[in-house]
Structure formats: C-alpha cells, structure tokens
C-alpha cells in the first residue's frame, strides 16, 4: 500500500506543517505589500479618463452641444468640472468633437449665433469666429483653431477624453 | 475671470479686452429671513459662476458686495457707487450688478452701473435635475441681457 511505502515520520510531519503554515503567514504579510506597491500602476490603467457624452445615433452633421462633467482632483479637493463639446459628423461621416473654449481668452463659443456670419462658431466676448471644422477665421482675435477632443465609440456611445490643441492657421 | 491669482495675472496681460465687472449684491441677515437670504445667495453664486465660465474672456466676476439687510438703501447706494467709480477708473467700462434683493428696484436710476435681477427661488426642497434646469434657464437669460448691453 502507498501509505506504507511513504511513511511520514514525526519530524517530517512537523516540518511540513511548519513550512505550510509559515508559508501562509509569509504570503499573508507579503501579499498586501506587493499589492500596495503595484497599486498605482494598476490604477492608472483602469482609469482611461474617457467620459460617456452622447449616443452616436443622436449625432448629426449639424454641430450640437453636449454637456458633461469631469472629475477633477486638486490636491485634497475633489470636484466635478462642467464641460461642453460641440459634436457633429463631417462629410466623410467621421465624428468631430470640438472644445467650446475660445482660444483667445477662454469664453464659450456658440454655433451659428451671429446672424451676419452663419455656419460658424462665434465668441460673444470679442467677436472671434471659427469655421465649422474649428479653424479660426483670420482677422478675428483668436490666433489658434479650437481644440479637438480625443474620442472613442463603444457600444453606440461616444466617449470623450482630453481636448488636444492643433496648429495655428 | 475671478478674483484669483491665476486670473488676475491673466487680466494684467490682457487688460484691453476685459472691460466688464460683475458685482453680485448679497444681503446678509440673521433674522428669521436668514435662510431665504442664504438660499438666494447660493443661487446667485451658481448663476454668476456659470456666466463667468461662459464669458470669462471679457468679464471679471468680483467677490460679492455684501451688506446687512438693516443698512439703509442710501448707505448701500453710496458705497456701491464708490465701488463703481473705482472700477471705472481701473478701466471697466461696464459694471453689472446682479441681485435677488428687491429693494434695489427703488433706486435703479441712482446707480452708476446696470442692474440685473434674478428671481428668488425656494431651492431647499428641489431635486437636483430641476435645480440644474432653473440655473441653466436663468443663466441663459442673464447672459443674453449682458450681451445686449455690450452692443
């Protein structure tokens, strides 16, 4: 019988039990330490910083404004910052998400708000204008085109990330 | 722009573009009307902050002009006009007052700046989405009123 062949002596039995229990205890101590050490790396991957903003089927070729909120952490103080985006589909059917922050002094621009210049983004503060693709109209105060949001489409929803600046016109 | 180091340093660089000061007029009281006054103040802050966000390149949102409800109107007007002259001297062509306090209505002519009223809204038992909607509405209204003053 196998039991007879592998007789376990008292010394061996104690050795096994002690290493076993000691192993568990060591693991119990080390695991949280390893976890704590790795935590920052794992966390950054988890938070992709994309926010669901709109349903893709709602997006038309006419720019629409969507409001959303982004969590901001400033030292200890956590708050939600309201943000907006002008979203539309261009001629090729690709989604364009523009930041409404005027590149001049940071007012919020509106689509089609100025009757004299239809189909442009208009800044009410100093009458800055941008064409539909966000390019600044020369001769108006802004010196750069509107920022574009990074975007991602998942399960029919539009997710927006950070607004990225583009080169000047 | 707000009264913060970051915004003030931007103001110093772009002075020629910022010609409007917004002064919320905020009454204080510790009588039985304290709660209403506080709610009005909170509402006013929400609306003015939102306006500042949308028009920050042209207007400077100042800290509130506070006064006790027991102060007489004449005292308040005198002090407010002094603020306004000081702002005008600093290069603010427009000074807009925003308030929920009806007592200013009596003196609209005696003020050096333009007065804008917000309704007093019982905010306390309102749910958040409705609250947001009201703030949104009032903001749009006030925003358009401001813009029409500029032209």
Description:
Chain B: InterPro entries: DUF2487. Chain B: This is DUF2487 domain-containing protein. The complex is a heterodimer of chains A (169) and B (151). Chain A starts with a helix and ends in a 5-residue tail after the last strand. Chain A folds into 2 domains: 1-42; 49-162, Rieske [2Fe-2S] iron-sulphur domain (Rieske Iron-sulfur Protein), CATH 2.102.10. In chain A, the strands form 3 sheets. Chain A has a 3-stranded antiparallel β-sheet, with no helix packed on it. In chain A, strands 2-3-4 form a 3-stranded antiparallel β-sheet, with no helix packed on it. A 3-stranded antiparallel β-sheet of chain A has the order 5-6-7, with no helix packed on it. In chain A, 24% of the residues lie in helices and 33% in strands. The longest helix of chain A has 37 residues, at 10-46. By secondary structure, chain A is an alpha+beta fold. With 151 residues, chain B is an alpha/beta fold. Chain B has 4 helices and 5 strands, in the order αβαββαββα. In chain B, strands 1, 2, 3, 4 and 5 form a 5-stranded parallel β-sheet that branches. The longest helix of chain B has 23 residues, at 128-150. In chain B, helix 2 packs across helix 4 (128-150). The A-B interface holds A 82, 102, 104-108, 123-126, 141 and B 10, 14, 17-18, 50, 53-58, 147, 150.
What does the secondary structure layout of this molecule look like, with pairings?
The complex is a heterodimer of chains A (169) and B (151).
Chain A: H1 2-5, H2 10-46, E1 51-55, E2 64-74, E3 77-89, E4 95-98, E5 110-111, E6 121-123, E7 128-130, E8 148-154, E9 157-164
Antiparallel strand pairs in A: 1-9, 2-3, 3-4, 5-6, 6-7, 8-9
Chain B: H1 5-13, E1 20-28, H2 34-54, E2 59-61, E3 65-68, H3 73-89, E4 94-99, E5 114-117, H4 128-150
Helix pairs in contact in B: 2-4
């Amino acid at each position: 019988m196998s039991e007879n062949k592998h007789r376990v002596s008292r010394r061996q039995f104690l050795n096994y039990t002690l290493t076993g229990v000691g192993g568990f205890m060591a693991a119990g101590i080390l695991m949280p330490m390893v976890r704590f050490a790795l935590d920052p790396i794992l966390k950054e991957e988890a938070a992709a910083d994309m926010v669901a903003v709109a349903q893709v089927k709602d997006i038309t070729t006419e720019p629409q404004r969507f409001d959303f909120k982004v969590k901001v952490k400033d030292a200890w103080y956590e708050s939600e910052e309201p943000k907006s985006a002008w979203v539309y589909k261009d001629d090729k059917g690709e989604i364009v998400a523009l930041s409404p922050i005027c590149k001049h002094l940071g007012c919020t621009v509106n689509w089609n708000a100025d009757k004299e210049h239809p189909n442009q983004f208009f800044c009410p503060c100093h009458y800055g204008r941008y064409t539909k693709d966000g390019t600044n109209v020369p001769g108006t105060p802004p010196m750069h085109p509107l920022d574009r949001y990074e975007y991602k489409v998942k399960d029919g929803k539009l997710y927006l990330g950070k607004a990225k600046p583009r080169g000047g016109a | 722009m707000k009264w913060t180091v970051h915004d003030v340093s931007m103001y110093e660089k772009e002075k020629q573009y910022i010609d409007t000061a917004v002064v919320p007029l905020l009454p204080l009281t510790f009588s039985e009307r304290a709660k209403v006054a506080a709610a009005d103040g909170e509402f006013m802050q929400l609306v003015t902050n939102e306006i500042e966000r949308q028009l920050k390149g042209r207007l400077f949102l100042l800290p509130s002009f506070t006064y006790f409800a027991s102060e007489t109107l004449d005292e308040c007007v005198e002090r407010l006009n002094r603020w306004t002259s000081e702002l005008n001297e600093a290069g603010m062509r427009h000074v807009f007052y925003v308030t929920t306090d009806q007592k200013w209505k009596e003196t609209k002519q005696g003020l050096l700046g333009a007065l804008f009223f917000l309704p007093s809204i019982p905010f306390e038992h309102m749910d958040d989405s409705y609250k947001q909607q009201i703030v949104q509405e009032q903001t749009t209204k006030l925003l358009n009123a401001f813009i029409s003053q500029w032209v």
